[in-house]
Design goal:
Layout (H helix, E strand, L loop, with lengths): L1 H5 L2 H15 L17 H5 L38 E7 L2 H11 L7 H16 L6 E4 L3 H14 L7 E3 L11 H8 L3 E3 L2 H4 L4 E8 L3 H12 L5 E8 L2
Parallel strand pairs: 1-6, 2-5, 5-6
Antiparallel strand pairs: 3-4
The structure holds zinc ion (2 copies).
The site of one zinc ion has 8 residues, from loops.
Amino acid sequence: MILIQKIPGKINKNLIDIFKDIIIPPLCVVCGKIGPELICRQCISKIKEIGDKICKYCGRPLSRISPDDKGCNFCRNEDFNFYKHRSFTIYKGEIKRIIRKYKYNRIYDLKEVIAVFLKQTYIRNYEYEKIDYIDTVPGKHMELLCRSLSKLIKIPFADNILRVRKIIKQQGLDFMQRKTNIKEAFKVKNCLLSSGKNLLLVDDVWTTGSTLGEIAGVLKRAGADRIYLLTLARGL
Ligand SMILES: [Zn+2]
Ligand SMILES: [Zn+2]
């Protein structure tokens, strides 16, 4: 203790960090192995990015790409409010644990790692598109994540979506229940901001797409032009 007090501030801090690491060593949030990174390399290496064999509209992984210009069997008859959707990976294993730790255990330091995943998918699919700003589903974890992504891809983040009523958790609801649950639950704060603009709408998990579809609809009615969806993981 005496030793720490005599050393100048900066070194003190480092020493305290060293002691802290000895008492509570940093662990990988996924597998619990001791190591300097929030997520160890081994866990990161197990996450497989969705490749190029996908529906060009909804981004669903396909065994065979349709030869015509229409969407896959799942989306060709859908009237989507968005222009395209791309996901980084499939919602399972390591990514599922990471998202849960970030969202429910509120380990917000994970935002930097997650933003890098999103950046990879952005670069692969949307880098040459003209995108004016990023927006997301209202909520602290998504806002923090989008602010990190915004710095990485140098597109401004506009916190322009407002939730206007309470919604219950979508988990466990079927498609129709989900749609009803979020119907008219969101508004655009400032229509002037979205009018005539292309935007990147980001979320963590794509399940049935009902929340993102609803928000994309609100943005379209507020005059948005192209809406590019970007999600971290998709259920199917
Ligand atoms: Zn690990
Ligand atoms: Zn499709």
